[in-house]
Amino acid sequence: MSGLVKQKNASIPIVGFMLAQLSSSPVFAEQRPFNLGSVATSEQVAGWDIDVRPDGLGAPIGAGNAIDGEEVYNDRCASCHGDFGEAVDNWPALVGGEGTLSSHDPVKTTGSYWPYASTMYDYIYRAMPFGEAQSLTHNETYQIVAYLLNMNDIIDDDYELNHKNIGKIEMPNSAGFLMPDPRPDAQPISGNPCMNDCNVPTQIIGKARDIDVTPESES
Amino acid sequence: MTKKHDQSLSLSRRSLLGGATALGAASVLNSASAGEVNPDNLPPNVPEWTPYLGEGVDANPYGLPSEFESHVVRRNVEWLTASAESSVNFTPLHELDGIVTPNGLCFERHHGGVPEVNPTDFRLMINGLVDRQLIFTLDDLRRFPQTNRFYFLECAANGGMEWRGAQLNGCQYTFGMVHNVQYTGVRLSDICREVGVKPLAKWVLAEGGDSAGMTRSIPIEKILDDCMVAYAMNGEALRPEQGYPARLVVPGWEGNMWVKWLRRLEFGDMPYMAREETSKYTDLMKDGNARMFTWVMDAKSVVTSPCPEKAINNRGVQLLKGIAWSGRGKIKRVDVSLDAGRNWQTAELHGPVLEKSLARFTMPFEWNGEEMFIQSRAIDETGYIQPTIQALQAERGVNSIYHNNAIATWMVNKDGSVDNVRLG
Question: Among A51, A54, B125, B346, which residue's CB has the most CB atoms within a 10 Å radius?
Answer without folding.
Answer: A51
